[in-house]
Design goal:
Elements: H1 2-17, E1 22-23, E2 32-34, E3 39-44, E4 50-55, E5 58-63, E6 70-75, E7 81-93, E8 96-116, H2 118-121, H3 130-136, E9 139-146, E10 165-169, H4 179-192, E11 196-200, H5 221-239, H6 242-265, H7 293-299, E12 309-313, H8 331-346, E13 352-355, H9 369-380, E14 387-390, H10 407-420, E15 432-439, E16 442-448, E17 453-455, E18 462-466, E19 469-472, E20 475-477, E21 483-486, E22 496-499, E23 511-513, E24 522-524
Parallel strand pairs: 2-8, 8-11, 8-12, 9-11, 12-13, 13-14
Antiparallel strand pairs: 1-3, 3-6, 4-5, 4-7, 7-8, 9-10, 15-16, 16-21, 17-23, 18-19, 18-22, 20-21, 22-24
Helix pairs in contact: 4-10, 8-9
Amino acid sequence: MKKLAVVVFVVLVAAVSFGDITLSKVFSDNMVLQAGKPVKIWGWARPGAKVAVSFGGQTVEAVADKDRGAWSVKLAPLAICKTGREMTVVERGKKGDGPKKVLKNILVGEVWILSGQSNMQWTVNGTDDYPLVRKRANYPLLRYMRNNEGATAMKPTRQLPPSAHWVECTTNEVGSFSATGFYFGERLMLDLDVPVGLIMTACGGTCMPNWMPYECLDRDPSFKAIRLRYERESEDWIATNGFCGACLQRAKDIDKYVDDMIKARTGKGKYPWPRPASPIAYTGWPHHRIPAAHWNSKIAPMVGLTCAGVLWYQGESESWAFRDGDPAWHFGEMLGTMIRTWREKWGEELPFVVAQLPSMAPDNKGNLGWPVVRSRQRQLADVLPAFCAAPTLDSGWEKDVHPHDKTIVGERLARVARRLVYGEKKIALPPVFKAAKLTDKGAEISFASEAKLSGRGTPRGFELKFGNDWVEAKPVLRDDGTVFVASPAGRGKPDAVHYLWKGWDKPNVWLYDAQGVPVTSFSYPFAVR
């Protein structure tokens, strides 16, 4: 009995001495750590505990704080490593180490956060090139962090959703990866010959305020207006018991959704999307539109993660330009505010590589939102460092906001990243509008392009404005890289000129640089409404 008592006593002492160690879910088996920078690792343990992290021949220690038990360490910059290695995390004790966490099959390479809305969320199995991808995509050097993309939270969380975990890219796994992310990551992996890690966070239908900390929304007038409207309408929702009526309506919506699904599976209709969401007790706003909700659940838990940058594909939800104050007119300012806020939270100039909106014909006539957003995305590069937008308007579907030609989008983004982040001078920056001069003869337009420009097919895509009329006019590409657009006979000096200033521009894309990248939409002078 005495021996048993001693054993029990020892076990109890051990239980008291050592607590469980928890890591952020962004650190798990099969992950990729960022190369070339100090790498932050963090988690939680018993308050006051000494925690040791060992990886790649390094061991770094930290003491968990006395309030929440939070701890973090920084590994010295790591060299690229294509062989899976282990990371151990253990609590140190005066009489020996406690239980340890062991993460396996970790590579070191380039880590990118994927964010935005549904075109970033769109999966590989829904793209034109999926049959080819299924034959080639056994890539042990390409890793992907799955996530609950629809997860939201009212306050910043310290941990990612429970389902978050890393997987290797295989032909069985790749179909459900982000298509834009996969085609981007595949090109980086092959062109740079490095492991690539992709962290999925995007969610369909989201606007920029969904990806901002709540306390930072007032930094931009448009974000502040959204915050105030959300608070006002949520108060009215509670006061009028809107939740009860929404529950009754959802029951009807689910019945219709089931009927539509049956019709789709029997070939008598299209698959319904999205599935009717559950109503929320405290607001009538849908989950994907609540300010800060996606920041709280998927970005806040990763703040400070050591990575190469952010891949951002978003803007369809703000592509409205009918009246004064519509979001497209202020898209550049809003995106700039959001990026600066992320960088402030990260404590570094986090690179952002952005996909410009592709071609699509909006249902609403008179809506110039798509070319306006493209132009604002382009202009932001003039004022924001470590930022570049990749032209994609020679991709897209006329009547579908979710085009299946995502390969070109991912590869264009990879080109931009190789120049912006990895400094490959042989890759030219995307060609962009520089200046225009309006004369009695027409418009003379110059471009900033590091590679020679050329036209593809019949010269097209330009219009001149005379009074209230826009008139198609034939462009001429000169040897010096400028374009001259002549005024029609008798019209004289134009008031303005623009190029590809519609939603559906794909058939009219004409001007490319020598590396196959198109000049994107522009209008001069650009009218801010």
